[in-house]
């Protein structure tokens, strides 16, 4: 290119009208699949775990990295981010496998990110649920 003109990101030069409307003649645009799949019914999946029945009750949560906390469930969202109050962290010292020791640390109010949670269980026992992977006959 002569004269030090700037290259346009879509392939044309910055001056003139050549290529100014390039790529805009496609009626589908960038959306892709307009009008397809609208009649498909999406199956509504029931959640396997419903944290609302444990609101204001004590639960135990295991987190990635080996941490374990117990606290009162105060809130949650669809990503299973949870808010616990009166949290106590149980710290296990596994350096000596013959004499494992536990100590507890009182934390208070905690927000746990859903992606870091491995296990959530009530402290007063657990409920049996139907296996969601078994096909109904």
UniProtKB/TrEMBL annotation:
Start-end of Basic residues biased regions: 21-35
A Pfam family recorded for this sequence: LSM
GO annotation, cellular component aspect: catalytic step 2 spliceosome; Lsm1-7-Pat1 complex; spliceosomal tri-snRNP complex; U12-type spliceosomal complex; U2-type prespliceosome; U6 snRNP
Top-rank lineage group of the source organism: Eukaryota
Residue ranges of domain Sm in the record: 46-126
GO biological process annotation, one example: mRNA splicing, via spliceosome
This protein's UniProt keywords: mRNA processing, mRNA splicing, Nucleus, Ribonucleoprotein, RNA-binding, Spliceosome
Annotated localization: Nucleus
Gly residues compositional bias, start-end: 1-20
Chain positions covered by the region annotation Disordered: 1-55
Biased composition (Basic and acidic residues): 36-55
Keyword Magnesium set for record: no
Any GO MF annotation of the entry: RNA binding
Signal peptide stretch: none
InterPro entries from the UniProt entry: Lsm7 (IPR017132), Lsm7/SmG-like (IPR044641), LSM_dom_sf (IPR010920), Sm (IPR047575), Sm_dom_euk/arc (IPR001163)
Protein name (record): U6 snRNP-associated protein Lsm7
Gene expressing this chain: lsm7
């Amino acid at each position: 290119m002569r004269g030090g003109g700037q290259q346009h990101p879509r392939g044309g030069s910055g001056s003139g009208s050549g290529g100014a409307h390039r790529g805009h003649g496609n009626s589908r645009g960038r959306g892709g699949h307009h009008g397809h799949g609208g009649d498909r019914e999406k199956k509504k999946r029931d959640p396997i775990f419903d944290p609302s029945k444990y609101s204001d009750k004590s639960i135990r949560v295991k987190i990635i990295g080996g941490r374990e906390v117990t606290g009162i469930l105060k809130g949650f969202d669809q990503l299973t981010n949870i808010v616990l109050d009166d949290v106590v962290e149980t710290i296990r010292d596994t350096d000596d496998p013959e004499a494992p020791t536990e100590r507890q640390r009182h934390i208070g109010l905690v927000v746990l990110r859903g992606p870091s949670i491995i296990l959530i269980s009530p402290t007063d026992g657990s409920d049996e649920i139907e296996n969601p992977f078994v096909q109904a006959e």
